[in-house]
Specification:
- The protein is an all-alpha fold and 285 residues long.
- Helix content is 70%, strand content 0%.
- α9 runs parallel beside α10 (236-243) and α10 packs antiparallel against α11 (252-279).
- The longest helix is centred in the first third of the chain and has 37 residues, at 75-111.
């Protein structure tokens, strides 16, 4: 009699993920984008700020694969450098926002009562303001820069992350293994980290993956309106902003960074959908 091979939770998730072709496509694109972001300076033929005014608005050629902008800067090189900056903003926003959400949501969900009520009402106050409006206000107060844009987006995404992890912890904290940990005089931080979070983190992982795409769009939006990456830094949203005034005559200056944003966000969304299906037994075929 054949016995089913035992898999770890990670192995089982990967086994299910491999069945989803769209998720694998998203994973491949994400890996490529991350590799380009990491090794961009080695791949790009020119620096992001190298100017050649004689070749302004040059057509694609062997020297400039995708042409140049109004300052004669190589578009292909700036797209590669922009990958690093856009991923820095997307991953940085999600990392800080999710971490803050995990801490706040864990405290609210585990302790409950007045603690939960106070924390969630504060989160409700933040949630009443539209996310993009809050990003713009915070970025405008702090000043235009990549770092401040990351802070603005992270703060605006914290309430949703906190609410999600709180809801999952509320379903776990009454389980027998948590009561057993309390019975042996386990400290609250130890119980939360070692017993509660590992059993409540799966939906947060899926949400985090999909939020990376949203953060990339938010970062590009802030750069587009002048509150994110500042010239001459190459970032996809900033490149869209620079090319919008000449898009009638040089549409490629907005087409290329727009395609980069679209494909990257699509890849993270496909991967997030695949992870959701793979990690939730109710959604498996």
């Amino acid at each position: 009699m054949n016995q089913k091979k035992h898999r770890s939770r990670l192995g089982d998730t990967w086994h299910q993920l491999k069945k989803n072709k769209f998720a694998l496509v998203g994973l491949v694109i994400v890996i490529i984008v991350l590799l380009v972001a990491i090794f961009g300076p080695l791949i790009a033929p020119y620096s992001y700020d190298a100017q050649d005014l004689v070749n302004a608005y040059a057509k694609p050629s062997r020297e400039h694969l995708l042409g140049t902008d109004k300052f004669g800067r190589d578009t292909f090189s700036r797209l590669i450098w922009g990958t690093r900056k856009s991923m820095e903003m997307g991953l940085g926003c999600v990392a800080f926002g999710t971490l803050a959400g995990l801490i706040i949501g864990s405290i609210a969900g585990y302790f409950g009562g007045k603690v939960d009520n106070v924390i969630m009402r504060i989160m409700d106050m933040f949630s009443c303001v539209p996310m993009m409006l809050m990003c713009v206000v915070i970025a405008a107060i702090l000043g235009p820069s990549t770092r401040n844009a990351i802070i603005a987006i992270a703060v605006s995404t914290t309430p949703s992350a906190a609410r999600l992890i709180r809801a999952n912890i509320l379903t776990v904290r009454g389980k027998e293994f948590v009561e057993a940990a309390r019975a042996i005089d386990g400290k609250a931080p130890h119980i939360i980290v070692n017993h509660v979070l590992p059993n409540a983190i799966a939906p947060t992982i899926v949400s985090t993956t999909m939020n990376i795409g949203n953060s990339i769009i938010s970062g590009a939006t802030l750069s587009f309106i002048g509150l994110g990456a500042q010239p001459p830094i190459a970032e996809w949203g900033a490149m869209l902003s620079e090319g919008r005034n000449v898009m009638r005559d040089h549409m490629e200056l907005v087409l290329y960074p727009g395609i980069c944003v679209m494909l990257t966000v699509l890849a993270f969304n496909l991967l997030g959908d695949g992870l959701r299906d793979a990690m939730d037994p109710r959604l498996r075929n």
